[in-house]
UniProtKB/TrEMBL annotation, chain A:
Alphabetized GO MF terms: oxidoreductase activity
Protein name (Swiss-Prot/TrEMBL): L-lactate dehydrogenase complex protein LldE
UniProt source species: Chitinophaga filiformis
PANTHER family named in the record: LACTATE UTILIZATION PROTEIN A, UNCHARACTERIZED PROTEIN YKGE
Gene Ontology terms: cellular component: cytosol
A Pfam family that the UniProt record links to this protein: CCG
InterPro entries: Cys_rich_dom
TrEMBL record, chain B:
Protein name: L-lactate dehydrogenase complex protein LldG
InterPro entries: FTHF_cligase-like_sf, LUD_dom, NagB/RpiA_transferase-like
Domain LUD positions: 56-193
PANTHER family: LACTATE UTILIZATION PROTEIN C (PTHR43682)
Pfam families: LUD_dom
Lineage top rank: taxon: Bacteria
From TrEMBL, chain C:
Residue ranges annotated for the 4Fe-4S ferredoxin-type domain, each copy included: 296-326
Annotated keywords: 4Fe-4S, Electron transport, Iron, Iron-sulfur, Metal-binding, Repeat, Transport
Identification of the protein by name: L-lactate dehydrogenase complex protein LldF
Lineage of source species: Bacteria, Pseudomonadati, Bacteroidota, Chitinophagia, Chitinophagales
GO biological process: lactate metabolic process
Sequence segments annotated as region (Disordered): 436-458
Molecular function as annotated in GO: 4 iron, 4 sulfur cluster binding; metal ion binding
Pfam families associated with the record: Fer4_8 (PF13183), LUD_dom (PF02589), LutB_C (PF11870)
Length: 245, 198, 458
């Protein structure tokens, strides 16, 4: 099984440890992982800002780098969702379609494709899950609080396999943190307020760590936590699942 | 006249037709549960009395609404002696000073406590709204489970010029989401759930 | 770009100047969202019901022409007079003419978002007619000379003390009394006097049934009924999209509407107006005002399914923290943000961007409008039509150049991180909106790509 590792631009530049944890976790689980070099970005920052027509370059690069692989896996629900919904390249539509159908966010790849039912990981801490909207409502990583449907959560299932880890209950299980791509700068006041409120929910319920499937949300929350000089830290789910005994 | 231009624009722009969904799956079989009906009305701020004879109405009103002076009963049998001569006046404005109106309801809906009333029975449409307090008499045999059953079985066709589902007393939560009973309509709702003894 | 109003982001920033108030606003609306959840969970077939409602509305969009004709024919047979208005101006003119025929100078209106959309009240005021809004929340904002901030809870932004103050000033209640029960009783007295004196009543319409020519109006207060039944002339104003095919379809919508809106099983009153009462005139004004145009926009026509429950506002994390007035439109929140650009794309170009695209709105919508996807699509249309700020466009073009060329991306990323490490003040300053209330990420020495090159075989 050949798995292409998709490391979104801001993870590559600012959170390489998340990329390393993702790669190492997939390798531990027996995947033959390739990292196509020269990859840049899924194009979402432009598309969500209303400039989808400028994303041809990103789309072409993406198809060139990831065509012909069995699976493409990335540690970001948001970027994966963008590719799933919007990757089209004229003249390479077949390859683009293959990618759209074969791209997975890390947690869903672990649960749905690798069908992981145990992990050798230990993380003796109180952890709150931040359900990032695009992963949750877009990719369906977890049941959404708005819907009348049976509960499930792929990230939660994985985290429950980690020795010593205690999940904290939140008052609002899946409210948006306010990152929202360029929303975080163009609507700075609301964005920060949303982030502060999410953090307060985790802190009030005793979380030592906030984890999630999207580094973008975590970066936003981390920025606020650090400004507040809080002891609470953020970690991508890959970093916890990869933490060795 | 804009009628033709609006209709032309709609005809040009409307999408392809799609079939209507089948609503039968939402129907329930059997009658509605009077206990569930009662419970919902109570949560809506209404009061429910189960009676087996109309004669029970008078003492209940005397006990629970002792201040009601001007009482209108649309059926003589509900409250012998209450006013029934009420069909004259300025388009219903005269009923502003009615303390309590007792009216018949055609049927109730168990899922939401709503009771169906039409102008066939109440004659003056404004009565159940303008009266200070409202009481509705409905038979426990006439409870349907859901709104789907109501429209399918009871009111597939309109039975008058005006019909209304009433569920509880008039209320508002417009001030800081604090629930207050008695906005513009009746301040209280009493439901007499009538089950004649076999 | 010249706008009549400040943009959403700026108005939201002003709203956020008072954080305790934002918390209060957020908590109040979240409570309504929770009531909605609780009610939805009492119906196991809830999701099927939403699907059915969405499909009924889809059928309506595809048959709107015929349904409108059917409705008109049946309404006329019932004794109503049907008027057609192409836009807000024509709607207002029709209503004014009807009022002038009656010679009234003061009359009551129950809640109608359509008349808000058409700015009927100020138009009638210009012609010497005073409209008394009778929904308590609407009356409160009317006294405060403000527009409603929410389509179901018009004065949700107001604290009871402020309302007490308003009532003291306008209705003569004792100063300092802010008890909701007392204030409601005062309003009841005041508005009952208005109902009694009024000879004409305007109401909105929640649903209009093609099959029977009747209109259903839902209220909790009973104000639509108090107005309409006492009046000699009842004027019902409705958007053309309010049509539903048959009476039985009301079963679906009445189950969904109040549960979604306020978490009630049904509104106190669901009134079915078919024929005018004896001696009364019933006028129905059918209003297009951009709806037929929206019907032609394939990506956006589903917005016409809206039944105005306001659930998308209550759940929207942005709405709850920016307030209804920040949307500077009659209809605020997510649904307002996809309806408004159809009315005036330039004026409302900011609204589709006032969202994180979290998708909660689409999930609570009782008629399953793909609201967040339409927000995304409006962004594309607004940008294509040239209504985006030039500075933003320049930034996006620059971003595209960097991200389309792996070499340039690698170099720019390396330089960027080096600058951030070496001269943090370049990014950590007040001009960077990220930094105002957040720290920048700590830039690592090497990127993942650099690490991979060193640590894995090529």
């Amino acid at each position: 099984m050949k798995v292409g590792l998709f490391i979104p631009c801001y993870i590559d530049q600012f959170y390489p440890q998340v990329g390393i944890a993702t790669l190492s976790l997939l390798e531990k689980l027996g995947c033959d992982v390739v990292y196509p070099q020269g990859q840049t970005c899924c194009g979402q920052p432009m598309a969500n800002s209303g400039f989808e027509h400028l994303t041809h370059g990103c789309n072409e690069l993406f198809v060139d780098h990831f065509e012909g692989l069995d699976y493409i896996v990335g540690p970001s629900g948001s970027c994966v969702l963008h590719i799933k919904d919007h990757l089209h390249v004229e003249g390479k539509e077949q390859a683009a379609t293959h990618i759209r159908q074969r791209i997975y966010e890390l947690a869903e790849f672990l649960t749905d494709v690798l069908k992981v039912d145990h992990l050798k990981a230990k993380f003796p801490h109180k952890v709150g899950i931040h359900q990032s909207c695009h992963g949750q409502r877009g990719l369906g990583l977890a049941q959404m609080s708005e819907l009348v449907a049976a509960p499930f959560s792929k990230p939660q299932r994985l985290l429950q396999m980690v020795e010593g880890l205690e999940l904290v209950e939140l008052k609002r299980t899946d409210e948006c943190c306010g990152f929202g791509g360029t929303f975080c700068v163009f609507e700075e006041a609301v964005s920060v307020k949303m982030g502060k409120d999410r953090i307060a929910d985790h802190v009030n319920n005793g979380a030592e760590y906030i984890t999630g499937n999207d580094v973008s949300c975590l970066m936003h929350l981390e920025g606020i936590l650090r400004r507040q000089k809080s002891d609470v830290k953020v970690l991508h789910i890959a970093e916890i699942l990869n933490s060795s005994i | 006249m804009s009628r033709e231009s609006i209709l032309a624009a709609i005809k040009k722009n409307q999408p392809e037709q799609q079939a209507l969904p089948d609503l039968n799956a939402f129907r329930r079989t059997g009658p509605g549960d009077p206990a569930a009906f009662r419970k919902v009305i109570e949560t809506l701020g209404g009061q429910v009395f189960e009676i087996s004879s109309y004669a029970e109405i008078q003492p209940l009103i005397a006990e629970h609404q002792p201040d009601a002076q001007k009482i209108i009963s649309l059926q003589e049998s509900y409250l012998p002696g209450a006013m029934t001569e009420w069909e004259t006046g300025d388009g219903g404005r005269q009923y502003e000073h009615v303390d309590l109106a007792i009216i018949p309801g055609q049927f109730g809906v168990a899922e939401n406590g709503a009771i169906w009333i039409t102008d066939v029975e109440i004659k003056e449409r404004v009565l159940p709204f303008i009266t200070q307090h409202l009481a509705i008499v409905v038979s426990s045999q006439d409870i349907v489970p859901t709104m789907h059953d109501a429209y399918a079985e009871r009111i597939a066709q309109p039975g008058g010029g005006f019909g209304v589902f009433i569920a509880g007393p008039s209320k508002t939560a417009d001030i800081e989401q604090s629930l207050v009973l008695g906005a513009h309509g009746a301040k209280s709702l009493t439901v007499f759930l009538y089950s004649p003894k076999a | 770009m010249e706008h009549q109003h400040k943009e959403h982001s700026l108005l939201a920033e002003e709203f956020n100047a008072n954080e305790p108030r934002v918390n209060w606003h957020d908590e109040t609306l979240w409570w309504v969202r929770q009531k909605r959840d609780k009610m939805a969970w009492t119906i196991p077939e809830w999701e099927d019901l939403r699907e059915a409602a969405s499909r009924i509305k889809h059928n309506v969009l595809g048959n709107l022409h015929d349904y409108l004709l059917e409705f008109e024919k049946n309404a006329q047979a019932n004794g109503a007079v049907v008027h057609w208005a192409a836009d807000a101006a024509e709607h207002n003119k029709i209503v004014l003419q009807l009022l002038q025929e009656q010679g009234v100078k003061r009359m009551v209106k129950s809640k109608s978002m359509l008349t808000e959309e058409c700015h009927l009240n100020p138009y009638l005021a210009e012609h010497g007619i005073e409209v008394i809004d009778t929904d308590l929340g609407e009356r409160i904002v009317q006294l405060a000379k403000e527009p409603p901030s929410h389509i179901v809870l018009p004065c949700i932004h107001k604290k009871k003390e402020e309302i007490g103050e308003l009532f003291h000033e306008h209705l003569g209640t004792p100063a300092g009394n802010a008890d909701p029960k007392f204030l409601t009783a005062a309003a009841r007295q005041h508005l009952r006097a208005e109902f009694i004196q009024s000879r004409v009543a305007i109401t909105g319409v929640n649903f209009a049934v093609a099959e029977t020519g009747e209109m259903v109006v839902c209220t909790n207060e009973g104000n639509a009924d108090m107005g309409a039944h006492l009046a000699d002339v009842h004027i019902a104003c409705m958007g053309i999209e309010k049509i539903i095919p048959q009476r039985k379809h009301l079963g679906v919508f009445l189950r969904l509407l109040a549960r979604s809106a306020t978490g009630q099983p049904i509104t106190t009153y669901s009134s079915h107006f078919r024929a005018p009462k004896k001696g009364q005139q019933l006028h129905i004004v059918l209003v297009d005002n951009g709806r037929s145009r929206q019907l032609g926009r394939e990506d956006f026509r589903n917005s016409l399914k809206c039944i105005r429950c306001g659930a998308c506002m209550n759940t929207c994390p942005v709405y709850r923290r920016s307030g209804g007035h920040s949307y500077h439109n009659a209809i605020a929140g997510p649904i307002g943000a996809i309806l408004a650009p159809n009315l005036d794309m330039k004026e409302y170009a900011d609204l589709p961007f006032a969202s994180t695209l979290c998708g909660s709105c689409s999930n609570v919508c009782p008629v399953k409008i793909d609201i967040h996807q339409q927000l995304y699509k409006w962004r594309q249309v607004i940008t294509r039509e040239g209504y985006t700020k030039k500075t933003k466009a320049a930034g996006m073009h620059a971003m595209n150049i960097v991200l389309s060329k792996p070499g340039l991306y690698k170099t720019a990323g390396g330089i960027g991180r080096w600058v951030m490490r070496t001269f943090p003040a370049v990014v950590n300053n007040g001009l960077n909106p990220w930094f105002r209330q957040r720290e920048m990420p700590e830039p690592p020495k090497e990127s993942f790509a650099d690490w991979y090159k060193k640590n894995r075989k090529q």
